[in-house]
Request: fold
Amino acid sequence: MITLEELSKNYLKYKYRYLADNSQRAYDQNMRFLLERCESINDLTRPNLNNIINESGRLKTKNLRKAVIDNFIEWCVKEGHINESIETEVYKTRAEKHETNILTMSEYQLQVLLSSVDNGLIRDILNIGFYMGLRINEIVHCRPSWIVNEGKFLRVGDLYIWNLEDEFHPKSQKEHDTPIAIPSKVKRIFERGKRKTQKYDRIFGYNSDSTLRQHLKEHFQALPKPLCNNFTAHHMRHSCISYWLNEKRVPVQEVQRLARHARMETTMRYYHPDNEAHLDAFSG
Reply:
């Protein structure tokens, strides 16, 4: 019978094909943490795993540990080493529950924000962040060569593209094609960017994540309270997922693909049930 340590090595070997260096270190660290507390596959029970996940006092660490362990268990089930998946849980204090509230803006709030922005490049980036959910480092490093399939998709995470061109390290090295034809103004932004030779040979002309974050933060002050106090560049991605799920009611499977989430559970964090939508779903 295969040992838990051998399983861990095989799992990490599989994951390393898709993960950037910083993600590899996080997976390796959390798998070693698991091995220190479990001697065999028989120790992989729900109570044991919950105790391991919640051993840390930091919510961020607990969430990361849960993600790694859940993914490992799913892989074990797929490979036939475990009969069924194990549902784990992060125990949150009242303060932590408040901390995990997701900040999002609506499409109307986006339009109000855009009306206060004079810089055309910043307006383009706000539209890209809101409608496509790109991460800031993806926007900064976005190049014309990322546009594929006759201008209909943006290929993010392509190993050949990012290793060849610069120091960009995507969150996942597994390539994903993100549609850029929705809405039409987003498509026009990429068409315009592809025709022009931009600074640093990048579509949006930025060479630093921190510089773009700072520029966006200055414009977020135009948002209504309390958004203006806490809204960050990454909350544009949260807003995108919430917009397509809750305002446009796009099927969750499609939004998961757009967000490039490995687990549907992550996408569902942004779904807010609506009685009217629930009624419409069952109306003839």
Observations:
- Strands lie at 147-148, 153-156, 176-179.
- The domain at 107-277 is CATH 1.10.443.10 (hpI Integrase; Chain A).
- Residues 122 and 216 are 7 Å apart (CA to CA).
- The chain has 16 helices and three strands.
